[in-house]
C-alpha cells in the first residue's frame, strides 16, 4: 500500500512539474503584457507586478488595420480547417475501406511528404505560387488564397494518417448491415461513418487551426506588398523597432492572439480528448 502511494506521489509530482514548465511561459507572457512600460524598459524581472497596466493592450488595439489582420487570420484558419479536414476524411475512407493496387504506395508517399522540413520548401513554394498566380490570381502571391492552399496541403498528410485509424476501426459488419438495409456507399460514409469518426476529425481540425493561425513564415513570404491581406502574426512586426523593441506591445499582441485559440479549444475540448485517445463511439 505504501509503495503504491509513493508511486502515485511521484507521478503527481512529475505531472505538477510538467504543468509548471508548460504554463510558466504563458504566465510570463501575460505578466509582461501587464507590466508598465517603464518597468519593462528598466529590465524588472520580479514574478509579479504590483502596478498592472493595460497600456500595452491599448497600443496593440490602436494598430492600424488590426481588425483586418484578425479577419484575415480567421478566414485563412477557417478555410484550412474545413478544406483539410474534408479532403483528409475522404482520403482516409479510400485508404482504409477500399483495396486497390497503389494503396500502400500512396500511404508511404503521404508519410514522406510529412517528413520534408517546411523551411526547405519555402523558396520552391514561393515560385510555385507566383506561377499559379499568373493563371489563377486569387491563389497567387499577395492573396489569402496562397496561404489557404499551402496550409491545407501541409495539414492534409497528418490528418489522413490520424483519420485512417478511426475509419479502419469502424467494424466491417456495420458497413455490411448498412448495405443490406439499402444504403449506398455515399450514404454509409456521410450518415454513418462521418458521425463515428467525429472525435478524430475534431483532433485533426485542431491541428490544422493551430498550423494556420500561428503561421508567420508563409505569411511573410507570400504576402509581400498587399497590406490589406496580411495576417495577425505580421501585425506584431510593427512592435519590433531598430532602436528598441516594444516588448509590452509584443507580449500584449501575443496574449490577444492566444485568446481565439483558447476559445477554439474550449469549444472542442470534449471531443478533442476522445479524439486524441483514439476512441470511436459505436
UniProtKB/TrEMBL annotation:
The keyword Transmembrane helix applies. CDD domains: TM_PBP2. PROSITE patterns: ABC_TM1. It is found in: Cell membrane. GO terms for biological process: transmembrane transport. Keywords: Cell membrane, Membrane, Transmembrane, Transmembrane helix, Transport. It is a multi-pass membrane protein. One of its GO terms (cellular component) is plasma membrane. The keyword Transmembrane helix applies. Residues 70-268 form the ABC transmembrane type-1 domain. InterPro entries: BP-dep_ABC_trans_perm, MetI-like, MetI-like_sf. The chain crosses the membrane at residues 12-30, 69-94, 106-128, 148-171, 192-213, 247-268. Belongs to the binding-protein-dependent transport system permease family. PANTHER family: INNER MEMBRANE ABC TRANSPORTER PERMEASE PROTEIN YCJP, MALTOSE TRANSPORT SYSTEM PERMEASE-RELATED. This is Carbohydrate ABC transporter membrane protein 2 (CUT1 family). It comes from Haloactinospora alba. The lineage of its organism: Bacteria, Bacillati, Actinomycetota, Actinomycetes, Streptosporangiales.
Amino acid at each position: 500500500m505504501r509503495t503504491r502511494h509513493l508511486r502515485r506521489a511521484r507521478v503527481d509530482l512529475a505531472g505538477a512539474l510538467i504543468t509548471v514548465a508548460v504554463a510558466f511561459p504563458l504566465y510570463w507572457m501575460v505578466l509582461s503584457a501587464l507590466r508598465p512600460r517603464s518597468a519593462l524598459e528598466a529590465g524588472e524581472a520580479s514574478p509579479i507586478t504590483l502596478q498592472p497596466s493595460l497600456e500595452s493592450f491599448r497600443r496593440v488595439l490602436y494598430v492600424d488595420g488590426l481588425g483586418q489582420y484578425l479577419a484575415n487570420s480567421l478566414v485563412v484558419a477557417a478555410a484550412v480547417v474545413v478544406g483539410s479536414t474534408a479532403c483528409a476524411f475522404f482520403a482516409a475512407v479510400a485508404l482504409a475501406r477500399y483495396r486497390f493496387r497503389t494503396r500502400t504506395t500512396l500511404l508511404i508517399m503521404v508519410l514522406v511528404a510529412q517528413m520534408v522540413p517546411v523551411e526547405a520548401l519555402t523558396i520552391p513554394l514561393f515560385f510555385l505560387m507566383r506561377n499559379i498566380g499568373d493563371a489563377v490570381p486569387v491563389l497567387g502571391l499577395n492573396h489569402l488564397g496562397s496561404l489557404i492552399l499551402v496550409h491545407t496541403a501541409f495539414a492534409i498528410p497528418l490528418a489522413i494518417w490520424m483519420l485512417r485509424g478511426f475509419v479502419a476501426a469502424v467494424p466491417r459488419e456495420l458497413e455490411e448491415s448498412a448495405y443490406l438495409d439499402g444504403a449506398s456507399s455515399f450514404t454509409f460514409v456521410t450518415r454513418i461513418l462521418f458521425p463515428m469518426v467525429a472525435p478524430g476529425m475534431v483532433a485533426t481540425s485542431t491541428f490544422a487551426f493551430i498550423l494556420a493561425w500561428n503561421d508567420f513564415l508563409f505569411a511573410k513570404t507570400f504576402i509581400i506588398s498587399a497590406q490589406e491581406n496580411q495576417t495577425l502574426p505580421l501585425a506584431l512586426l510593427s512592435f519590433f523597432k531598430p532602436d528598441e523593441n516594444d516588448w509590452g506591445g509584443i507580449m500584449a499582441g501575443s496574449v490577444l492572439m492566444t485568446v481565439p485559440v483558447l476559445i477554439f479549444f474550449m469549444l472542442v475540448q470534449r471531443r478533442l480528448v476522445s479524439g486524441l485517445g483514439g476512441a470511436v463511439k459505436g
